[in-house]
């Protein structure tokens, strides 16, 4: 009976563990990773940068970026900001190449060409062109109003309507309209909507985010997190960071990282990678630890069951051998 009871308890533990894993995987309340508190995240990010943001590493990364054609000045500026905030002195050879490259890429003719390209089609803009020529309108109610009027005209004429551009513009206008009721807090949502709309127009929003926006799944929470990133960094950094945001969870983690690092956020992501920054602001959930504990308990229970069966079979064999007596002498 004790053996049967042990088998039954082991089977019950297996079923319970299976249900626990299923609920953790499918329940919206459960998650493998959860964000740390703001203080914990900031402390871990500071330790990460203290270890990784060295003159050699930043200088090596800048050399790679400066050798590219065209040069990614958003990434270069982010690393320069990181070095300045961390009080890192760049090697002399890097500073010399950096100055020459800046003079080459920031002539009046080149900047004017970027503005004309942005004015003609926002999809042609790089991040520096967006800042110089286009993003100001996108972050004001006038840009949202123009989008609503334009897409409404498309609808009346029977032409295709850009539902994402229209939705983001409507959210931006709505956030401005309720400013008196929210004491100004809705302006964060307006900023997020403007940043998302600009990122969408230059093709920077990821496929999962676009799919969620079309379903209106978590759109407001996503825009709020994006607004927090913008408040902690700047326009260019936010438009660059949004390329690596694949959903609401990513947006929340990026927001937490930005609140901890401020203007160093983009430089940190450029230097050590998004995944390491996200690991610094997230931890395993309590449910995962409970699942691991249950798995260890299951392994111990199964091992104990095997030992119990082996012991029972051994005793039976010994008793049967003892009853048969010694083998007859030859």
Q: Main β-sheet: number of strands, strand sense, barrel status? A: 2 strands, antiparallel
Total helical segments: 18
Helix proportion: over 70%
Determine the strand fraction and express it as a percent band: under 5%
Indicate the low-confidence ranges by residue numbers.
Answer: 24-30
- Secondary structure category: mainly alpha
Q: Tell me the overall shape.
A: elongated
Average pLDDT rating: 79
Number of domains: 2
Radius of gyration: 30 Å
Biggest sheet: strand arrangement: 1-2
Give the tally of β-strands.
2
Distance between the termini: 42 Å
Write up this protein.
By secondary structure, the chain is mostly helical. It folds into 2 domains: 16-32 and 285-312; 42-283, no CATH class. It has 18 helices and 2 strands. A two-stranded antiparallel sheet has the order 1-2. Helix 6 crosses helix 7 and helix 8 (141-157) packs across helix 9 (163-177). The chain is elongated, with a radius of gyration of 30 Å.
Put the structure in a nutshell.
With 330 residues, the chain is an all-alpha fold. It contains 18 helices and two strands. The protein has a two-stranded antiparallel sheet.
Keywords for this entry:
330 residues; mainly alpha; 2 domains; two-stranded antiparallel sheet; 2 strands; 2% strand; elongated
């Amino acid at each position: 009976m004790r053996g049967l009871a042990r088998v039954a308890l082991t089977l019950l533990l297996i079923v319970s563990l299976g249900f626990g894993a299923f609920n953790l995987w499918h329940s919206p309340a459960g998650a493998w990773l959860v964000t740390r508190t703001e203080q914990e995240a900031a402390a871990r990010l500071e330790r990460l940068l203290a270890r990784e943001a060295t003159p050699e590493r930043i200088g090596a990364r800048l050399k790679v970026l400066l050798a590219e054609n065209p040069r990614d000045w958003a990434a270069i500026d982010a690393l320069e900001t990181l070095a300045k905030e961390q009080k890192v002195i760049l090697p002399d050879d890097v500073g010399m190449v950096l100055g020459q490259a800046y003079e080459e890429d920031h002539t009046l003719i080149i900047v004017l060409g970027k503005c004309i390209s942005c004015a003609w089609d926002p999809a042609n803009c790089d991040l520096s062109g967006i800042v110089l020529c286009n993003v100001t309108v996108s972050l004001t109610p006038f840009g949202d109003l123009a989008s609503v009027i334009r897409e409404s005209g498309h609808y009346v004429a029977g032409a295709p309507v850009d539902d994402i551009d229209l939705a983001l513009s409507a959210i931006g206008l709505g956030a401005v309209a309720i400013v008196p009721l929210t004491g100004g807090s809705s302006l964060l949502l307006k900023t997020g909507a403007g940043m998302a709309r600009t990122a969408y127009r230059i093709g920077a929003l990821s496929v999962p985010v676009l799919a969620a926006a079309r379903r209106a799944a978590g759109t407001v929470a996503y825009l709020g997190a994006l607004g927090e990133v913008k408040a902690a960094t700047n326009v260019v950094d936010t438009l660059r960071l949004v390329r690596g945001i694949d959903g609401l969870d990513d947006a929340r983690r990026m927001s937490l990282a930005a609140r901890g690092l401020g203007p160093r956020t983009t430089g940190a992501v450029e230097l050590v990678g998004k995944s390491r920054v996200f690991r610094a602001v997230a931890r395993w959930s309590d449910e995962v630890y409970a699942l691991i504990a249950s798995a260890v308990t299951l392994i111990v229970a199964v091992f104990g069951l095997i030992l119990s069966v082996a012991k029972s079979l051994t005793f039976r064999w010994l008793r049967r051998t003892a009853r048969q007596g010694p083998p007859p002498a030859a």
